[in-house]
Amino acid sequence: MKYSSIPLAQTIVLYCKAWGIKNIVISPGSRNAPLTIGFTEDPFFNCFSIVDERSAAFFALGLTQEKKEGVVILCTSGSALLNYYPAVAEAFYSDIPMLVISADRPAYKIDIGDGQTIRQPKVLQAHVNYSANLKQDVIHATATISKLQPAMITDAKIERQQEEIQQFNENRIQEAFRIALAEKAPVHLNCPFEEPLYQTQQSPSVPQPAGTFTVQRPGVQEDLEDYAATWNRSAKKMILVGALSAGAVPQLLLDQLADDPSVIVLTETTSNISHKAFFPSIDSIVAPIEKSGNKQELFEKLRPEILLTFGGMIVSKKIKAFLREYRPLSHWHLDPKKAYDTFFCLDHHFRQHPADFLRSFLPRTTEVRSDYQPYWANVKERYKERRSAYLEQIPFSDFKAFNSVVEYIPENTRLQLANSSTIRYSQLFDLHPSVRVYCNRGTSGIEGSTSTAVGAAYKADGPTLLITGDLSFLYDTNGLWNRYLRDDFRIIVINNGGGGIFRILPGAEETENFKTYFETTQDLNLEHSCKMYGLQHDRAMNESELDSLLQEFFKPSDQPRLLEICTPRTLNNKILLKYFDFIS
């Protein structure tokens, strides 16, 4: 086994191993060679090579998205690090333990006109939970340091100075790893290396990390009696669930919530929980009220006395608008780390995992007689009936295509959703409970959906399907530029010829400016991209072609497959908006 001859590189590799961090996503470069050598020469690590740093970071996010285990992304110096930023921001808001390790040139070579240098320390600071600029070893390349920057060598006994540097670096590496894994957050370590960069040795010259490293499950116990008493006095309780990993809350606890007639549980596709009594299509409840003649009366009937929230970001803009205007008396949020005041009425943050809180809280509660859940359950059944009737009468469109796709998704599929229209359409249809759903809702950007899906698919114990729009797919075709696409990976591109969501938003108009600067219409042939990256390509232009292709699309194959569904650009928005009128 080979190690870099540079002590800092050895130390980082050894600490990754001590903390059990196995997945290392490397973008090629020379300045990061000491770390690349250390990771790739040790069979303990699973190393991935991805050229495009932006894609590499989203790929890494996908690798750890489901289980939220630590993952390392490693790059060379200069602008390479900046390309990580979109995925780092997503990791920050989605609670992903991502360890960003950037190689750098020595400090004395920054801002002097040397090549491939920028001011790397703290460049990610606004969106990481910890950032450290590690110290350059003086025992390596000592002659170069003495010549270029003699003031760096401060002790006649260079070994003593190196010991201080080693202790400094170990402390910060240890703290970075602890924070990343305990707080489920991105951290950044910037590592200055002087040449030579490729020298190796058979064993490390730095001490092995002492002891074993584990992370305690965070949480703060509270006295729940007063809160339970408030809960038991309330006849209208709403639970709103954001993005969750599958299995985060045991089904037994969910069943208890569903059994209380004074409780309604609103979920989204990314909530990954289900029960026949839950309300999985929030907009199908709220939108018809917005259009009704007695809107205020119905919204008052829906307004909860207590709002309990947990999980990540909420997709539905309509539920956010409703709860900001018709605020509950109390809003409690469950999360060991943070609580966003999304509805401007947060009055308590329980710093516990939702499952831990519910295990302690539910035994203290009693069912309350109420028509809250039964009333809205009837509303839910009516809109489901109306949705079926609407689908029978509309032409081929985004709406109809999504319905067809959802019906064919196999059980136990990992479903990756792109942002913009894709995630919003998905909220309107019922998925099988075994389908696990993921979407980059931390920042809600379109730039890394494919790369994330490829990373997630590589680690999944079953097939993965990415549903994306044409712009999102084209934005991230580099996500397919790697060796890690599985044969059971599937992509469905809803190609409506541009950014269809802008036709749904206020301000849409049929002008050249709108088409060019908002909708950004395109007519590119996706078949060429598929040929370049080795995917089988199929295209559906109408409902019968789509149904025929979907019957074969998910069957085993010897290469990944992409299904392009072409829908009418100027019709999709009208069909979606008329849906909410139809079910009202």
Any overview of this molecule?
By secondary structure, the chain is α/β, with parallel strands linked by helices. The chain has 3 domains: 3-196, Thiamin diphosphate (ThDP)-binding fold, Pyr/PP domains (Rossmann fold, 3-Layer(aba) Sandwich); 225-377, TPP-binding domain (Rossmann fold), CATH 3.40.50.1220; 394-582, Rossmann fold. Helix content is 38%, strand content 15%. Strands 3-2-4-5-7-6 form a 6-stranded parallel β-sheet, with helices on both faces. It has a 6-stranded parallel β-sheet with strand order 15-14-16-17-19-18, with helices on both faces. Strand 9 (237-241), helix 8 (251-258) and strand 10 form a beta-alpha-beta unit. Helix 1 (7-18) runs parallel beside helix 6 (158-183), helix 3 (53-64) runs parallel beside helix 4 (85-94) and helix 9 (282-291) packs across helix 11. It starts with a strand and ends with a helix.
Write the layout of secondary structure elements.
Blueprint lengths: L2 E2 L2 H12 L4 E4 L6 H8 L5 E4 L3 H12 L6 E5 L9 H10 L3 E7 L25 E4 L8 H7 L9 H26 L3 E6 L7 E2 L23 H9 L3 E5 L9 H8 L4 E4 L15 H10 L3 H8 L3 E5 L6 H9 L4 E5 L11 E5 L3 H8 L10 H22 L4 H11 L5 E4 L3 H6 L9 E4 L9 H11 L4 E6 H6 L13 E7 L5 H4 L7 H6 L8 H8 L2 E5 L2 H11 L7 E6 L5 H11 L2
Parallel strand pairs: 2-3, 2-4, 4-5, 5-7, 6-7, 9-10, 9-11, 11-12, 12-13, 14-15, 14-16, 16-17, 17-19, 18-19
Antiparallel strand pairs: 1-8
